[in-house]
Amino acid sequence: MLRKQIVIVGGGFAGIAAARGLKRVDADVTIIDRRNHHIFQPLLYQVATAVLAPSEIAAPIRQLAREQKNVSVLLADVTGVDLESRTIEAVSPKAGMLKIPFDYLVIATGVQPSYFGHDEFAKYAPSLKTLGDAEDIRAKILGAYELAETTNDEAVRARQMTFVLVGGGPTGVELAASIAQLATTTLRGQYRHIDPADSSIILIESGKRILPTFSDRLAAKAAKRLEKLGVRILTGVRVEIVDATGVVANSNRIPAATVLWTAGVAAPPLLKLLGAESDRAGRVVVDPYLNVKQASGVFVIGDASMTVSDGRPVPGVAQAAIQEGRYVASAIARYMKGRAPKGPFRYADRGSMAVVGKNFAILETRHVRVAGFFTWLVWATVHLMALPQLQNRLRVQRQWLWSYFTGQRSSELIPEQPARSREASATALRAKRSKPQQGRPAETKSPAR
């Protein structure tokens, strides 16, 4: 008798939780992801602001195969789903096109940034979803200070030291606070011609206030803390243009060399291939058992799904994704034994947290709303224990302690350009300088006498 084939698309919180939950199931489990690593996304902003190195918040997915004998890992990008033949198509960087059969399919792809119909903004305003994004943002931030240090033009210097963040949710708040402390503490005394503390950090939110998923009182405390750190908050403001020189918001131009997008998310194109009902953001609407309607044995979990628990939409947070992954693993195990799940999925809300710089965080549950230093300690403990591996926990703990007492950060690195790129840039600069200005003749040297 052939073993059942369970395919999990996505190696994030939901996908890894589902795979671990299938450890004792008599089936072959295949995890497919375009990346070879699982990212602890709640700390991704600390990589973007040089607090942590990428390896400290990530772990190879393939290590799960060593721990779990029924798991195999495939580095590939899923491009098609055929529900009739129960197969998926994937493109591997090395093997090309692959067709993979499944008896049960778990889609846990997460979401991608949404620029609300203005995809042209992405060129100038990177989002924060991957380790590559975080490293690019870190290079952009640190590079801005390097350029500010080398110019004598005050307008250029001011633009280089202006940072605009679009979106006042938890990511935007945490990133803004971390940039503020990078400027005022970590980089202090490292430059001779600029003072990083003079940086202008602007957080733009189109809604009435920042942190709309938190209570008014906690959001107000977070806003007050940000302002104390030197962050300027603009609410009720919509960004209309993002280009190489900054942004236009509510018809006002804000010159800025660094614009970061922390506003919205959308479902990836793969979900459309299911032909299932979706919400406005493109997330698949699943039934109470996290099954795609009219597609038995096909589940969508994590940020890619829209489900309701106890009459309330399940939020797109890590703890919800983990709970959904575990639930689907249990449901598949029961289906394989000819049983139905014990009951519909129920989300156990353990609260939402956001950290606003050093020594301050907010926490909200159904019954508790607190903020301050003790909450920050709880946040640090919870996130430390939730890291994927022991080595991650030890490294992050050590770096956090070092940063806490010294103000220094572990990864203030700007990646070096390859020699070929450096030469191309230098050639372009020389050509620009030698090109005569419009309306003026080129200067010529007199022949030697």
Structure in a nutshell:
This protein is an alpha/beta fold and 449 residues long. The chain is built from 11 helices and 26 strands.
Anisotropy-based shape: globular
Q: Classify the beta-strand content into a percent band.
A: 15-25%
What is the overall pLDDT average? Answer: 92
Round the Cα radius of gyration to an integer and report it.
25 Å
Low-confidence stretches: 439-449
Distance separating the two termini: 96 Å
Give the fraction of residues assigned to helices.
25-40%
Q: Tell me how many strands there are.
A: 26
Major sheet: size, sense and barrel closure?
5 strands, parallel
Total helical segments:
11
Order the strands across the largest sheet as they lie in space: 5-2-1-9-20
Global structural class: alpha/beta
SSE arrangement:
Layout: E1 4-9, H1 13-21, E2 27-33, E3 37-39, H2 44-48, E4 58-60, H3 63-67, E5 71-75, E6 77-82, E7 87-92, E8 96-101, E9 104-107, E10 112-114, H4 131-150, H5 154-160, E11 162-166, H6 170-186, E12 200-205, H7 216-229, E13 231-235, E14 239-243, E15 246-249, E16 252-255, E17 258-261, E18 264-266, E19 284-285, E20 298-300, E21 305-306, E22 308-309, E23 312-313, H8 318-336, E24 352-355, E25 361-364, E26 369-372, H9 373-386, H10 390-406, H11 419-434
Parallel strand pairs: 1-2, 1-9, 2-5, 9-20, 11-12, 11-17, 12-13, 19-21
Antiparallel strand pairs: 3-4, 6-7, 7-8, 10-18, 14-15, 15-16, 22-23, 24-25, 25-26
Helix pairs in contact: 1-8, 4-5
